[in-house]
Structure formats: C-alpha cells, structure tokens
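Researcher: Here's a chain I'd like modeled. Treat it as a single chain, no partners, no ligands.
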Amino acid sequence: MNIKKIIPFLVLSLSLLGFGFATDALASNHGNTSWGNEYRIWSPDDHTPARKKDNRTAYYNKTTSGSTYINIWAALYDGRDVSGGRTYRSYPGGQATFLYNLAVERYGSGVSVRIDSRRFANAHARGVWSPDSVR
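Model: Modeled as a single isolated chain. Structure tokens:
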C-alpha cells in the first residue's frame, strides 16, 4: 500500500478519535456558581444551589472564606447522597476539592445536583462550585 494514501486516513482517524475524548469537556457545566452557607449547632446542614450535571467528572468546590472548616459531599438536588460514602473537609482559603460522585452514572446526564455540607457550630462559609470539573 502506498504511504501517501495511508497518511490522510491516519490523520482523519486520529482526529475523530481525539474528538471522542473531548466530548466530555465540550458537554460540561463547569462555570463557577457562588454559594454562602450558615450553620448552627441546632441546624448544622446547608447546601449549594442546585445545577445541572452533564458528565462523569468530579464536582468542583473552593471554600473562599468562612469562620471554620465544613464537611462536604456530593448530592442530588433533593439531598440524596451520590458520594459513594466519601466526605471531604473544606477549609476557608484552602485548596480546591474535587468531589467523587455517581450522579450521572446512576441518574443520567442532565440530573440536578448540589453539594451538601455540615458543621455542628455557629459558623458560616462562602465559596464557589461547579457540577462538572475541568482539571
């Protein structure tokens, strides 16, 4: 077979293969949404606003300010846990957290999700999050 005939075929094949890998990133909802939560000893739970999740990536969270750390996990819009039993401690001004979740795997693309949080203290926290992360 002539090499000149093979090269265009290889280029086209690799281009289509690369596009297949990029579709998750193209179909993502990764813009940041701000959140602000309040915690009380008698009412320790709060959550972010719900958003649509498009792909199987981790949720992204960054706690930018607050009076103490909070415990966070992945949930659906109604509070059903999709974290696979994983919780994370998020500190004000700390590093970004990427939350493992099974939202799309269990409920399909387009499901509404949120980040649930808990802190048994009189405290507050603020930050940003997105349902689809880009690392």
